[in-house]
Structures are given as structure tokens and as C-alpha cells.
Design brief:
single chain, 317 residues, alpha+beta, five-stranded mixed beta sheet, 9 helices, 53% helix, disordered C terminus
Length: 317
Amino acid sequence: MSPSNAWADPTQAQVTAASVAYSEAQMAELAEDYPLAGDLYELADSSAPSPQALRGATRARKLAGHHASAATHAAALLRRYPADELATTQGTTTLRELGSLLGFVTIECARPCGIGLDGSPPSAPSKTEHLLYLSPGEHELQARFEDGVQVIRSLETTRGTRATVIIDGGAAPPAGHRLRAAGSLRGERTGLAARYAEQAGEQRDARRVSPAWFAGAMVATVGLGATTTWSGLDVLDRQRAYAADPTELGFRDGRTAELRTNALIGATAGVGVLTVVLAIVTDWRRRGSSSSRGARIDGADAVTHQHGVGVGLRGSF
């Protein structure tokens, strides 16, 4: 499967969610909260794949000390974007630094599956081949097939080694069949564990919300972002005026404008995080099937740049 066909074209809602997640990821990275930045970059890339989001995820995971995730993302950069100079440079550099410290595992699924690692949810999209770097030690792999079958495998990796894991998910269950674990692999969970997994999935679906909530939060985020940008530009104007004529009144006006901008930054960040959370828990199946083919998150930089103006103004007066 070629990289370009590994993901279906994202819907407009997914592109919007990716843009918001990318913007919030950059804010988290500026605040040096690298684990959160990694989560948000990965969310952006899973919603609407792009080299920008994947490069951000690679960088954030490396800075957070999550070397296995950083190396896995670096390998994905080389595989998905071989013609992108920034992607290939970052991918090569990261693997040169971290690759020898980790184990490398190729997971081959009999049918398209998502892979979860050590309790994390299965990845998207479903593929027949997954390439992972893993830290040395024991790990648990969870393969989830598109028809609901789950398989659990245990494996141990060592530094600098390569291994291949083949997962046979068995035949697809008949229509209406309840979730089950299949195959004869060691460490597989069966019976009650599989039913509990299905019940947990049903409960998660029940907690999902209408897209209208996400739309409202998105409008609020954009509105606050625009207001924050205006306020930040106003502070810059007052800075220039104070530099040209440093009066007490100018200082007080600038300080007031700066406090207003900082409050708007906090509000925008809070609503933005809420929007990202809503993007995750929204039941997108309630929407129509309209899509934005070929759309990506290229415009997200402008949104983040608006926040960046505000962040750069702290302590100006």
C-alpha cells in the first residue's frame, strides 16, 4: 500500500480538527510541554495527515524523551514523504541518533489492522504492515481488525535488534457476531476479556457528542483567536508609541493592553483545548458524507502565528 493511499481523504471536519490540534500543539511546544505537544501533533496527523504535523510529532516526542515514538515517526517521515526535503532530513537525523538504541519490529497483519502498544488504543489507519521502534524490554501488542477481531501478542525487544511479528486475525465474523478474539497466538485474550473490550467500546460510543458542540467550540476558538490577534497588534502599536514618547500615560495604557492580551491568550488556549477534546469525542457519523479531497492543514500555521503574537508580548512593559 502506497503512503498516498494509506489514508482516506479527510472530511472538512477532520481538516478543521487537525488545524485546531496543530495550533494547540505549537502552543504546548512553546510552553515546553512536550508530551502534550506530541499528543496534539499526533492527533492532527491522524485527523488529516501532513508532513508538518508528523515532523512536529517527531520533534516533540524526541524532546519529551519518548525515543521509541520519535524514531517510529521519523521512519514514517521517510516512508510517507520521500520527496519532502525537511521530512527526509529530520527523519534521517532522528534515526541516526536514536535507531541503534531501540529494537525495530515489523508487524504483518493478515488483513488491515490497527496496532496498540502497552495499553494504548489501536492506531489509525488500519494497515497490513506496521513498522515500529520499541524500547528494550517486554511489550504487549494489541491488533484490532476492521471487523472487530482483536489479538493480543506479547514480545520482548532488545537494543539494535530487528524482528517480524505475523498476526493472523482469522476469518471475519458473520454479520451480527459479537466481538471475539481469534487465532492461536500466545498471550491472546479470549472470552470475558473480549466481551469487556466490546462493552467498553459501546460505552465510549454512548459518550460521544453531536458535531454541533464541536462546531460551536470551533467558532468560539476562531473568534477568540481573532480578538487575541487584534489585541496583540494593539500592544505592538502601543509599544512603538511608548518607545517614541515614553510617558507615564503611555506606560499605563500599554500595561493594560498587555494584561488584556494575556487574558485573551489564556481564554483562547482553554477554549482551544476544549475544541480538541470535542473533536476526539464527537460522533462524526452524524454528519453527512461530504469530504474535502486533498485538503491538508497548510493554513494552520496562520492560526498558530496569531497565538504566537500574544505569547511574545508577555513582560513587554
